[in-house]
């Protein structure tokens, strides 16, 4: 589903050059659940931005579902993002002073879906993450773990085949971390492809595959031995 081929990313700020990615090659098949690990500054978010069509490589190719998006412009990238990708961030990024249900309806509103259908889809997404009883709450009235579950509902409400999560449990306690990881496992079992950035080893072990970056290069790429079922 994802094919990253010799991708580099160089940021230039004045006369300072930062080589955030120094030649990354990797493939991700549909239905995989990948954790990307690495210390701060190793290039994880840069890679995620490229995988998520938020940015393009300096050199190399990135194919999403067989389409080379390396040279796409902003409008085409936005179109691909809307159709194929659900994003989840460390800081939840819910719209403040806006009710849960409206937050989750937002991507559907952008897509031009009618009000009734929108509400139905948003309620179903919220129920699937255990937040069906909080649809009228404001983000400020929810715990961090609850806000992240709303953010997951917002990410999946458009039914994207690919979910990208940048440190999704970075601000959560262990109980909420477990809730979010269970939801990811369920989404993955439904066939969705997940790429999740984390620097927590025990979080990474809940994926099926672990890729480690150091200084903008892949230094490790392994299958997780046994997928533990935490519900057992
Ligand atoms: P990580 O997510 O692993 O912490 P990043 O991908 O955010 O790492 O950053 C990798 C390197 O690229 C860092 O040295 C960072 O300072 C630099 N970097 C990231 N984004 C930018 C940017 N927009 N402009 C300039 N430098 C950047
Ligand atoms: Mg980062």
Which range best describes the helical content: under 10%, 10-25%, 25-40%, 40-55%, 55-70% or over 70%? 25-40%
Mean pLDDT figure: 95
Bound small molecules, deduplicated = adenosine-5'-diphosphate, magnesium ion
Strand order of the largest sheet: 6-7-8-3-9-10
Number of helices: 7
The radius of gyration over CA amounts to 18 Å
Q: Tell me the overall shape.
A: globular
Task: Characterize the structure shown.
The protein is α/β, with parallel strands linked by helices and 232 residues long. The protein is built from seven helices and ten strands. A six-stranded mixed β-sheet has the order 6-7-8-3-9-10, with helices on both faces. A four-stranded antiparallel β-sheet has the order 2-1-4-5, with helices on one face. β7, α6 and β8 form a beta-alpha-beta unit. The two termini are 31 Å apart. The model has no long low-confidence stretch (mean pLDDT 95). Residues 44-45 line the site of magnesium ion. The site of adenosine-5'-diphosphate has 12 residues, from β1, β2 and α1.
Task: Provide the descriptors you would attach to this structure in a database record.
232 residues; alpha/beta; 6-stranded mixed beta sheet; 7 helices; 33% helix; binds adenosine-5'-diphosphate; binds magnesium ion
Outline:
The chain has 232 residues and is of the alpha/beta class. It has seven helices and ten strands. It has helices at 44-51, 74-84, 100-110, 115-128, 144-156, 174-189, 201-204, and strands at residues 2-13, 16-28, 33-37, 59-64, 67-68, 85-89, 162-166, 193-197, 209-214, 217-223.
């Amino acid at each position: 589903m994802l094919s990253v081929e010799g991708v580099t990313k160089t940021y230039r700020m004045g006369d300072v050059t930062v080589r955030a990615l120094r030649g990354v090659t990797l493939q991700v098949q549909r239905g995989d659940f990948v954790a990307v690990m690495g210390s701060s500054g190793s290039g994880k978010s840069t890679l995620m931005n490229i995988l998520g069509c938020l940015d393009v490589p300096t050199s190399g190719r990135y194919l999403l579902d067989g389409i080379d998006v390396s040279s796409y412009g902003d409008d085409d990238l936005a179109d691909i993002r809307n159709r194929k990708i659900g994003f989840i961030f460390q800081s939840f990024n819910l719209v403040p002073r806006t009710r849960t249900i409206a937050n989750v309806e937002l991507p559907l509103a952008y897509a031009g879906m009618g009000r009734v259908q929108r509400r139905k889809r948003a309620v179903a997404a919220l129920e699937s993450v255990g937040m069906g009883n909080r649809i009228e709450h404001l983000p400020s009235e929810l715990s961090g773990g609850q806000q992240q579950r709303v953010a997951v509902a917002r990410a999946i409400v458009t039914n994207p085949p690919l979910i990208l999560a940048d440190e999704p449990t970075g601000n959560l306690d262990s109980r909420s971390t477990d809730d979010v990881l269970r939801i990811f496992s369920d989404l993955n079992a439904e066939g969705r492809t997940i790429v999740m950035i984390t620097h927590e080893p025990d979080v990474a072990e809940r994926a099926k595959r672990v890729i480690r970056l150091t200084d903008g290069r892949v230094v490790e790429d392994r299958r997780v031995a046994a997928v533990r079922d935490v519900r057992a």
